[in-house]
């Protein structure tokens, strides 16, 4: 079961009247300038994860209702979305309407699921409603099989941003060895997660991660993930170089770009049974060497055979690693004051692509998405 379409209205820079329909593939690359609306779609997925895990009001409280509704509650009274899922066996939709209410809150005024059996096909879809009027979704509490399937998919959405590699970043700090249920969105438990892969039945995946790191950091030998002396419950991202030296390096002795690539490689090359159901990466190319960007694109394509991936980027180098069908161009419509999402059509670009790369077409503004 894959998420193949989002119809979204009233959320942040997406208007509440016509809204936007966004088509998704195994890999979807959002390409657009600063302020176009890429990050708003990324944040929608974050909200979706809060919604399906019973923490919508926590998300609304942190963000503020005025920031979530298109130009605030005076102009937009609700956020609505329809998520369309497809498999060989069924086509399902999940529809939600979040309405503005006092004092400064959003509540679920409509929540509906449609199930259409495809193998063998049923004559018409079946629809049913979940409890409306509450502050949290009823999806996770519903006993119907379609609800359980959709809940598992949506609660498995994970958004990642590995930008923080400062001296106080969690990725550089010691971590609890048992914090390994999943890789955290800031890679704060990277050392513990790698130790789990190295020590358990996933050793071959750990070794694959090491090989990819060595391709972009040739001096890298291996991680040293022994527990911290005097405290066996904690581990740190220490490492050794490829000279078989006894010298132990700490995570502060890894460049920012290399550290981010280590986190990306671990996320995307982990065992398939541990992969999130849907991965969102916000500007993963930040600080990476061009060779590392090429390597990243390769492991993204490999991981997309097991999960869906959405990338938000401004990197021309990364864009050239994908096909036109993977790209969704995001730009701002100044007249309507909203974001517009447009999936590329390879056939329409056929003549252009014979002479230019995708990045060149973007720079020439043939694709759109430029300031």
Description:
The protein is α/β, with parallel strands linked by helices and 371 residues long. The protein has a domain at 1-156 and 323-371: P-loop containing nucleotide triphosphate hydrolases (Rossmann fold, 3-Layer(aba) Sandwich), CATH 3.40.50.300. The protein contains eleven helices and 16 strands. Strand 13, helix 8 and strand 14 form a beta-alpha-beta unit. The two termini are 36 Å apart.
Overall CATH class of the domain at 1-156 and 323-371: Alpha Beta
Mean pLDDT: 92
Strand order of the largest sheet: 2-1-4-5-6-7
**What is the rounded distance between the termini?**
36 Å
Alpha-beta content class: alpha/beta
Number of helices: 11
Shape, principal axes of CA atoms: globular
In total, the number of strands is 16
Architecture of the domain at 1-156 and 323-371, according to CATH?
3-Layer(aba) Sandwich
Residues in β-strands, percent: 25-35%
Rg value: 22 Å
N-to-C SSE series?
EEEHHHEEEEHEEHHEEEHEHEHEEHH
Question: Which fold does the CATH topology of the domain at 1-156 and 323-371 refer to?
Answer: Rossmann fold
- The CATH homologous superfamily of the domain at 1-156 and 323-371 is termed P-loop containing nucleotide triphosphate hydrolases
Question: What helical percentage do the residues reach?
Answer: 25-40%
In this structure, how is the largest beta sheet organized? 6 strands, antiparallel
**Low-confidence segments:** none
């Amino acid at each position: 079961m894959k998420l193949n379409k989002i119809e979204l209205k009233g959320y942040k820079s997406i208007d509440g009247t016509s809204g936007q329909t966004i088509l998704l593939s195994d890999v979807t690359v959002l390409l657009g300038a600063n302020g176009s609306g890429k990050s708003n779609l990324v944040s929608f997925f974050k909200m979706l994860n809060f919604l399906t895990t019973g923490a919508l009001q926590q998300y609304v409280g942190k963000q503020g209702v005025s920031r979530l509704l298109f130009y605030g509650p005076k102009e937009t009274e609700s956020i609505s979305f329809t998520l369309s899922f497809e498999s060989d066996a069924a086509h399902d939709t999940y529809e939600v309407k979040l309405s503005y209410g006092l004092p400064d809150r959003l509540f679920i005024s409509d929540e509906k699921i449609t199930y259409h059996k495809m193998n063998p096909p049923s004559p018409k879809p079946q629809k049913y409603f979940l409890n409306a009027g509450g502050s949290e979704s009823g999806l996770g509490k519903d006993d119907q099989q379609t609800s359980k399937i959709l809940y598992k998919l949506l609660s498995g959405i994970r958004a990642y941003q590995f930008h923080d590699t400062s001296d106080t970043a969690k990725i550089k700090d010691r971590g609890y060895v048992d914090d390994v249920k999943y890789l955290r969105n800031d890679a704060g438990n990277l050392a513990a997660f790698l130790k789990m892969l190295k020590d358990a039945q996933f050793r071959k995946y750990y070794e694959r991660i090491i090989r990819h790191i060595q391709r972009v950091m040739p001096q890298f030998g291996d991680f040293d993930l022994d527990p911290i002396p005097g405290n066996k419950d904690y581990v740190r991202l220490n490492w050794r170089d490829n000279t078989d030296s006894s010298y132990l390096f700490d995570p502060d002795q890894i460049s920012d770009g290399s550290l981010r690539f280590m986190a990306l490689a671990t996320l995307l090359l982990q065992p398939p049974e541990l992969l999130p159901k849907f991965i969102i990466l916000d500007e993963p190319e930040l600080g990476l060497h061009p060779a590392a960007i090429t390597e990243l694109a390769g492991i993204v394509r490999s991981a997309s055979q097991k999960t869906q991936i959405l990338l938000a980027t401004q990197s021309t180098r990364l864009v050239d690693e994908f096909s036109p069908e993977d790209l969704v161009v995001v730009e701002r419509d100044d007249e309507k004051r909203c974001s517009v999402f447009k999936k590329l059509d390879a056939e329409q670009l056929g003549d252009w692509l014979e002479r230019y790369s995708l990045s060149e077409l973007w720079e020439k503004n043939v694709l759109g998405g430029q300031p």
